[in-house]
């Protein structure tokens, strides 16, 4: 990312005297993306993440869709659809879905065969998907982020499923 500033001659009542040439100054900024899990309070890398840096670029299990604004009452009717991209069966029991406020819902009794999809129905007690946009995070049983998606308020049409 970069920002360019232009400084041109500017004179006011008691201002500058003499001619100054127009000057341009550019500032280029680089940001490192977080490639490891860190403590929310300190920002330090979590000890259980040692040896996991950097994490896999694409997760075997991914969030592919979500019904964030079901027709009627949202509570207990929101869903998150997952897909197993790997050639191996995956047991997601004990994994979690988290919302933008870090509220969590456990996934129970969900085994995905290779290439299969599964729907996690949120009970409304843990993770709740905002109709004003937000994030959905898939956490492994240790509570570490495995994969995540985001959506906007404009995507939250009543009764429609968002595809990621």
Tags for this model:
single chain, 164 residues, mainly beta, 4-stranded antiparallel beta sheet, extended
Helix content: under 10%
The span between the termini is 26 Å
Helix and strand run: EEEEEEEEEEEE
Which structural class fits the helix and strand makeup? Answer: mainly beta
| Alpha-carbon Rg, integer | 23 Å
Q: Taking all residues together, what is the mean pLDDT?
A: 84
Give a brief outline of the structure.
With 164 residues, this protein is an all-beta fold. The two termini are 26 Å apart.
Structure description:
By secondary structure, the chain is mainly β. It has no helices and twelve strands. The chain has strands at 2-7, 23-28, 61-67, 79-84, 90-91, 96-98, 104-106, 111-112, 117-121, 133-139, 145-152, 162-163. A four-stranded antiparallel β-sheet has the order 9-4-3-12, with no helix packed on it. A four-stranded antiparallel β-sheet has the order 7-6-10-11, with no helix packed on it. A two-stranded antiparallel ribbon has the order 1-2. A hairpin with a 5-residue loop joins strand 10 and strand 11 (145-152). It is extended and about 75 Å long. The chain starts with a strand and ends with a strand. 17% of the residues are buried. The model has no long low-confidence stretch (mean pLDDT 84).
């Amino acid at each position: 990312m970069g920002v360019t500033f232009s400084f041109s001659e500017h004179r006011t009542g008691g201002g500058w005297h003499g001619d100054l040439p127009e000057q341009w100054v550019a500032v280029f900024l680089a940001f490192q993306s977080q490639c490891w899990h860190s403590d929310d309070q300190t920002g330090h890398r979590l000890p259980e993440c040692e040896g996991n840096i950097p994490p896999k670029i694409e997760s075997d299990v991914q969030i592919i869709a979500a019904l964030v604004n079901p027709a009627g009452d949202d509570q207990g009717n929101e869903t998150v659809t997952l897909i197993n991209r790997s050639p191996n069966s995956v047991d997601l029991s004990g994994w979690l879905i988290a919302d933008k406020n870090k509220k969590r819902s456990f996934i129970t009794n969900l085994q995905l065969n290779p290439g299969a999809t599964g729907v996690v129905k949120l009970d409304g007690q843990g993770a709740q998907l905002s109709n004003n946009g937000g994030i959905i995070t898939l956490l492994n049983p240790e509570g570490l982020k495995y994969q995540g998606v985001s959506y906007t308020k404009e995507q939250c049409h009543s009764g429609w499923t968002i595809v990621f």
